[in-house]
Design brief:
This protein is about 35% helix and about 25% strand. The protein is built from five helices and seven strands; from the N terminus they run E-H-E-H-E-H-E-E-E-E-H-H. Helix 1 packs across helix 4. It is globular, with a radius of gyration of 18 Å.
């Protein structure tokens, strides 16, 4: 079976991608699964920039096709913050709960609905090899619209999911069953956009075997 490396150690992201790509004929591995300890600095100016940095670094270091994900929460009342800094919003190493608490404190002056969206960029990097064009790199993006509520609800998901409310479902992201989230989330939409390309890569890989 063909192996892809997911360029992240975030277990929540990995679990979601495992579920989303469950029917793809591929084994998804973390860098640590192949003995790779690589820390990529997220110095890009966009989600796509950071996703490409991660995917390309892991592809070059491992020799495997690699997937790099970068995502964030954008709140309209805060001018799109925390955005690129969503994971570091409360400082490096802060918990998900600390990030949610800081966000809610910043939103106290603003009345509901506090419109927001999750955005995701998923980069696919193909390492150089005989018969391939070197440096193949493509990015696929997805988003999910919602609003921020002050009551934390649900125990599924991770990050800002317990306060991200989807009016069409009358639930927070953390209240949705995993199978539903993995169809409608920002990460799911990016993965769905990438699916035909990944299928074509798999077909090429299988021809070479």
């Amino acid at each position: 079976m063909t192996r892809f490396i997911v360029a992240t150690n975030n277990l929540g992201k990995i679990d979601e991608l495992y579920a989303i790509f469950g029917n793809l004929r591929v084994e998804l591995l973390r860098p640590v699964d192949i003995g790779l300890n690589l820390e990529v600095q997220e110095t890009g100016q966009t989600y796509a920039d950071n996703a490409k940095l991660k995917a390309q670094a892991v592809a070059e270091a491992s020799g495997f096709i690699s997937l790099g994900d970068d995502s964030g929460l954008e709140v309209e009342a805060l001018g799109g913050a925390p955005g690129l800094y969503s994971a570091r919003y409360a400082g490096k190493g802060a918990s998900d709960a600390a990030r949610r608490a800081k966000l809610l404190e910043a939103l106290r002056p603003f009345p509901a609905p506090r419109s927001a969206r999750f955005r995701c960029a998923l980069a696919v990097a193909v390492p150089a090899a005989p018969g391939r064009q070197p440096g193949q790199l493509r990015v696929f993006e997805g988003s999910c619209e919602g609003e921020i509520i002050f009551e934390e609800r649900g125990h599924n998901g991770f990050g800002y999911d317990p306060i991200f409310y989807l009016s069409g479902y009358q639930r927070t992201m953390a209240e949705l069953p995993a199978e539903t989230k993995n169809q409608i989330s920002h990460r799911a939409h990016a993965a769905q956009a990438a699916w035909p390309y990944l299928e074509s890569l798999l077909e090429n890989e299988e021809k070479e075997i």
